[in-house]
Specification:
448 residues, alpha+beta, six-stranded mixed β-sheet, five-stranded antiparallel β-sheet, 17 strands
């Protein structure tokens, strides 16, 4: 078999939970947004292996072993990379692309033709959602989007639909309308002889000009991967598009509310915020943040993000705020539990994202305790060292030093030492993941 498309490999990584896979070979412990464990590739008593769910990867700081979810499975099962792909694809119910000469000579398809197919696909799935036999799909929406009179209008406004749990209903429908199988595959709505989406709530993705560029589907079956997204096509790239930007750009507010996924975005919209958008890829890029900056002068992030993402927003001169959801894992859960009014108050009282990160350093710790204060200090140093912009970092540093009643110069010295240590570690591990010249330069610049 020839080289597989990168879109397929990327989709396989997302469909295969590295946390679930890793947990069958090691005991994992959660630490913030990552997991740690004793490395399954060498003997050790203290965990030195870190699993990064957001990037579907792992790295052991003890033996240097690392890679993505596919290479992990390949190494742990002692099989080739291609064998690992085949096995994981089978587990994820994904069909390997056919790499025949005939398929390589695929017909080209214009952007306009893609838009036509997407419009007809949206209409088909929207009709399926309203069918009596697909009532479980509407019941799913009622549970997750609050059973309110607005729900009917929202379903129509966003063009929400449902992909039945049948292999080729959409394919047969579109072929009858005159599209070829190759066009359906090329546009991303079909995968081989099967519909790409099955048994999922469908969220059409519409660009700022009103074109339907692709789709994302939320499974209503807990046994399946939660989200499935259209693969790359002539009009769609998940790393470059935003859900609901067509509505948000019309809002009079210059603040955009950023949701983690489409379902949370629609739930937030239902509370009265038209200025909400959602990501289609967890690995948000600087280029996408620059696109967001065209429509906003401030962003409220409604889910946990790491410092790298906050640095991207800072580079784009886009201030960020975040929410305190308490024990709730998402705005959707918060709204269902406490109601729309309390969520609106939450948005109104959103706080600076970096300040929240620094405040969280004290969670569960007593500032009056010497031992706890030392732990708070170490947590604070880690957060401050992660802020890339030296001037921005120093502003937060001075505020934090005053709050903790410590000398800002001493804190600054420890933060700079931490940055230098990280830089040396990055340089040392360059043989595992080659650092770009830009990364090396930025690391040096970040030392204030």
């Amino acid at each position: 078999m020839g080289r597989l498309p990168e879109e397929f490999i990327s989709q396989l990584r997302q469909e295969t939970s590295i946390v679930d896979l890793f947990s069958t070979y090691a005991d994992l412990k959660k630490r913030g947004r990552v997991y740690v464990c004793c490395c399954p590739f060498h003997a050790e008593k203290t965990p030195s292996c870190t699993i990064y769910p957001d990037t579907y990867s792992f790295y052991c700081f003890g033996c240097g072993e690392g890679g993505d979810v596919i290479s992990f499975f390949s190494k742990i099962e002692n099989m080739s990379y291609m064998e690992a792909i085949k096995t994981l694809a089978q587990r994820a119910n994904m069909t390997l692309p056919i790499q025949s000469n005939q398929q390589k000579q695929q017909v080209t398809i214009s952007k306009d033709r893609c838009y036509e197919i997407n419009r007809d696909t949206k209409d088909f799935y929207h009709g399926m959602l309203l069918c009596r036999e697909n009532r479980p799909a509407l019941e799913f929406l009622a549970r997750h989007l609050i059973n309110s009179p607005q729900r009917v209008q929202i379903v129509k406004k966003f063009g929400l639909g449902f992909a039945p749990d049948k292999p080729n209903m959409l394919r047969d429908y579109l072929i009858k309308k005159g599209y070829s199988e190759k066009e359906l595959i090329f546009s991303g709505v079909s995968y081989g002889n099967y519909d790409y989406f099955q048994n999922r709530i469908i969220f059409p993705v519409i660009d700022s000009r009103g074109n339907i560029t692709g789709f994302t589907g939320r499974s209503i079956d807990s046994q399946k991967s939660r989200w499935l997204i259209t693969q790359k096509t002539p009009v769609f790239d998940r790393k470059q598009v935003l859900f609901s930007i067509n509505f948000a750009k019309k809002s009079s507010s210059k603040t955009l509310i950023l949701a983690e996924d489409c379902l949370n975005a629609v739930a937030i919209y239902l509370t009265g915020f038209e200025n909400v958008i959602a990501l289609l890829d967890t690995n948000i890029t600087f280029q996408l943040i620059k696109s967001i900056a065209q429509y906003a002068n401030e962003v409220i992030i409604t889910y946990p993000v790491n410092q790298t993402i906050l640095n991207y927003f800072s580079e784009a001169n886009l201030p960020t705020k975040t929410l305190n959801l308490g024990q709730m894992q998402s705005p959707e859960n918060y709204i269902i539990t406490y109601g729309a009014e309390k969520f609106r108050n939450l948005i109104a009282n959103a706080k600076d994202a970096n300040l929240i990160q620094l405040e969280n350093c004290q969670n569960g710790l007593d500032l009056e305790s010497k031992q706890d204060k030392n732990m708070i200090l170490q947590n604070t140093i880690q957060v401050l060292a992660g802020i890339k912009n030296p001037l921005e970092r120093d502003i937060y540093l001075v505020k934090t030093a005053k709050k903790l009643n410590i000398n800002p110069d001493n804190l600054r010295m420890q933060v700079n030492q931490n940055i230098q240590k990280k830089f040396k570690s990055q340089s040392k591990n360059a043989n595992t993941r080659s650092l770009t010249q830009e990364e090396l330069t930025n690391s040096k610049k970040s030392i204030g």
